[in-house]
């Protein structure tokens, strides 16, 4: 009896160990295989070079030198950062307003409203881009409206195939990624804090400024990171809406792989893109920690 | 309580949520410097009263007046009342100092004045050394004090406390009772305290309003309610009470005779206007009953259980004849005579003055 019990206890422990090992393999192995291995390959490629379409497997820093030594690369890099920062800031402002609007509605309609604003995520990317082109184009909805209203007498050319077009496109396409985390962080604030603020004499503005805004900083940081990292890496939107004027860093990286077939340079640029993104996440984390330990 | 010092008046307040009426025709006043407790079980409407006074809800009908002027439509942030919330509702991202300063900050007071006042109030609640802590770094009792400090710093006319002791353990609750009462005396502000705990109510209140099912059941001093409950609900809710059903069979000047399952019982008449034949209940406190070892004096009871409870011995007994009257008796533990054996037959006695008549059929209320 006692022997049996001891035996089955060992068995259970043995089973648990196997399950633990399996879980470890899945948790470490899958990301390792599908994320870190490709990244490591990229890193390796970025230190090789391309010679007449042939890959030369010798260590070199020439790809990175090309980036830092070429004013064109640097200019596009800086311009893309500014473009994406702008899109991020605008997304945060608009996303915050929308999230606040939803959070202040009755509990029963909130979920429906969230769905409405997140619905674009369920739609194909290409369809969304063509829809935006339909709105921003020379004979698009926006120009026709402005013409019809007599506000302009020539279609605005800046609306399509320009940095402005990319900017508008990025803001529209990535807005749901800003709305969601902000909404979730506002919704998590206990309602009795608003009650306490009002009870102590605070106006709605006081509550927003001193309670809701500070407590939703984690959501804002997440929203900012999402928007920036995703817009920075996006190359389809700039290509579809930017035309010849709309060169962004993501497009350059894409071009090295898909058009110029210079994989080592593309890999180096991709690594720079990755470092930029990781840097943003790092500073956002610092900002988050600073905001909560004040 | 001085009648002229009443400054807040609730007049025929009713409140419905949809088709559910949670308050029915509630009227009472609050006097200056008064510690008023609204006592009732959950669902009795006591929290709704607090939310109406604070301004979180609007009454369906009736009026709330402050110094004679109606404040029903005054927004929450313009009412000179502050609330200590049940779960404190401290701002988690602000230090103790900034939590307490909140009410002054939104009023636009300048920083040096705020700092001085915050230091003063933190000293009052005994938290001088905790100004820079965050709420999550405090114990339950300390959070409670911060919530209180945050409310009193605005110098409100009235502080509303919504079951603030519910989350504390028993020892701390007793301490906080004494603390709240001393603060209230010191500040000379009216406190309206919401609770379902009759011991807290008795310990702190100048006056208690007992709520049941959205109505005021009885209102009075702790002594009034404890010694002279008017309804079966109050008699049952307010401490332990034995209830014996019966019918009035005779009325004299100061006493009445009630016919019960254990024979004729003489009771104090009190103020209620009784008629012969009316159905009543006799309420007797367990501590007001004496054990008679010699069961000649009254109806015989069989002892069901004897339990030592520290300060007293609890004796549960049932009448030997019909088995329909159950009594709980508390006796001082020192006296061996007061401790009958289980199964023993005893008789009980009590003074007519220590009984109260509670009107109504047993099926009423409670």
Topology:
The complex is a heterodimer of chains A (294) and B (366).
Chain A: H1 2-46, E1 49-51, E2 54-56, H2 62-69, H3 71-103, H4 107-118, H5 125-136, H6 141-148, H7 163-187, H8 191-199, H9 204-215, H10 217-233, H11 236-242, H12 249-258, H13 263-293
Antiparallel strand pairs in A: 1-2
Chain B: E1 6-17, E2 20-31, E3 35-39, H1 46-54, E4 61-66, E5 69-70, E6 81-84, H2 96-105, H3 111-124, H4 140-152, E7 158-162, H5 170-187, E8 190-195, H6 198-204, E9 207-212, E10 215-220, H7 222-227, H8 232-237, E11 242-251, E12 255-260, E13 263-268, E14 279-284, E15 290-292, E16 301-308, E17 313-319, E18 326-331, E19 345-349, E20 355-359
Parallel strand pairs in B: 3-8, 3-9, 6-7, 7-8
Antiparallel strand pairs in B: 1-2, 1-4, 4-5, 9-10, 11-12, 11-14, 12-13, 14-20, 15-19, 16-17, 16-19, 17-18
End-to-end Cα distance of chain A, whole Å, is 61 Å
Radius of gyration of chain B: 25 Å
Query: Largest chain-chain contact?
Result: A-B, 19 and 26 residues
Number of E strands of chain A: 2
Average predicted confidence as pLDDT of chain B? 89
Total strands of chain B: the figure is 20
**Number of H- or I-type helical stretches of chain A:** 13
Helical percent range of chain A? over 70%
Instruction: State the low-pLDDT regions of chain B, or none.
Output: 362-366
Largest sheet, spatial ordering of strands of chain B: 6-7-8-3-9-10
Which of globular, elongated, flat, extended, rod-shaped describes the shape of chain B?
elongated
Low-pLDDT runs of chain A: none
């Amino acid at each position: 009896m006692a022997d049996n019990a001891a035996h089955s206890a060992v068995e259970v422990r043995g089973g648990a160990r196997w399950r633990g090992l399996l879980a470890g393999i899945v948790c470490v192995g899958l990301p390792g295989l599908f994320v870190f291995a490709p990244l490591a390959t990229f890193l390796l490629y970025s230190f090789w070079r391309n010679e007449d379409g042939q890959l030369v497997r010798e260590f070199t820093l020439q790809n990175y030198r090309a980036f830092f030594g070429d004013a064109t690369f640097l200019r596009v890099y800086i311009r893309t950062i500014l473009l994406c920062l702008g899109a991020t800031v605008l997304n945060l402002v608009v996303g915050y307003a929308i999230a606040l609007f939803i959070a202040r509605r009755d509990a029963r309609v909130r979920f429906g409203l969230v769905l409405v604003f997140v619905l674009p995520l369920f739609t194909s990317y290409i369809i969304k881009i063509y829809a935006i082109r339909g709105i921003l184009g020379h004979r698009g909805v926006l120009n026709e409206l402005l013409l019809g209203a007599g506000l302009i007498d020539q279609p605005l050319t800046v609306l399509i195939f320009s940095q402005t077009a990319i900017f508008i496109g990025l803001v529209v396409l990535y807005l749901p990624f800003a709305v969601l985390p902000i909404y979730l962080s506002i919704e998590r604030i206990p309602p009795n804090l608003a009650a306490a603020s009002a009870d102590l004499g605070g106006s709605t503005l006081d509550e927003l400024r001193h309670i809701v805004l500070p407590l939703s900083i984690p959501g804002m940081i997440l929203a900012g990171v999402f928007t920036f990292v995703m817009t920075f890496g996006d190359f389809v939107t700039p290509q579809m809406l930017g035309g010849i004027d709309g060169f962004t860093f993501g497009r350059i990286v894409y071009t090295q792989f898909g058009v110029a077939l210079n994989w080592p340079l593309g890999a180096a640029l991709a690594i720079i893109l990755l470092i930029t993104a990781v840097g943003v996440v790092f500073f956002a984390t610092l900002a988050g920690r600073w905001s909560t330990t004040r | 309580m001085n009648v002229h010092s009443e400054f807040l008046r609730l007049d025929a307040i009713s409140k419905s949520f949809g088709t559910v009426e949670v308050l029915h025709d509630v009227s009472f006043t609050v006097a200056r410097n008064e510690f008023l407790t609204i006592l009732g079980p959950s669902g009795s409407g006591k929290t709704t009263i607090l939310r109406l006074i604070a301004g979180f809800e609007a009454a369906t009908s009736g009026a709330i007046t402050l110094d004679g002027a109606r404040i029903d439509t005054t927004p929450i942030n313009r009412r000179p009342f502050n609330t200590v919330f049940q779960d404190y509702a401290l701002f988690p991202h602000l230090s103790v100092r900034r939590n307490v300063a909140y009410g002054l900050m939104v009023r636009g007071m300048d920083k040096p004045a705020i700092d001085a006042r915050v230091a003063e109030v933190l000293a009052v609640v005994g938290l001088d050394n905790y100004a820079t802590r965050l709420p999550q770094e405090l114990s339950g009792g300390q959070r409670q004090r911060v919530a209180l400090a945050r409310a009193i710093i605005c110098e409100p006319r009235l502080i509303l406390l919504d079951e603030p002791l519910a989350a504390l353990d028993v020892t701390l609750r007793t301490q906080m009772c004494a603390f709240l009462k001393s603060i209230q005396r010191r500040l000379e502000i009216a406190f309206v305290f919401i609770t379902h705990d009759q011991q807290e109510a008795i310990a702190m209140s100048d006056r208690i309003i007992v709520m049941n099912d959205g109505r005021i059941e009885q209102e009075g001093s702790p002594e009034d309610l404890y010694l002279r409950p008017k309804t079966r609900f109050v008699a049952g809710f307010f401490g332990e009470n034995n209830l014996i059903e019966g019918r009035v069979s005779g009325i004299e000047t100061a006493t009445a005779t009630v016919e019960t399952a254990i024979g004729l019982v003489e009771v104090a008449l009190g103020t209620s206007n009784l008629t012969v034949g009316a159905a009543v209940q006799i309420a007797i406190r367990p501590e007001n009953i004496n054990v008679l070892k010699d069961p000649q004096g009254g109806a015989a009871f069989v002892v069901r259980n004897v339990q030592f409870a520290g300060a007293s011995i609890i004796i549960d007994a049932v009448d030997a004849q019909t088995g329909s009257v159950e009594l709980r008796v508390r006796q001082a533990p020192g006296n061996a005579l007061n401790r009958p054996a289980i199964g023993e037959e005893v008789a009980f006695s009590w003074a007519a003055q220590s009984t109260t008549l509670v009107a109504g059929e047993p099926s009423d209320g409670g």
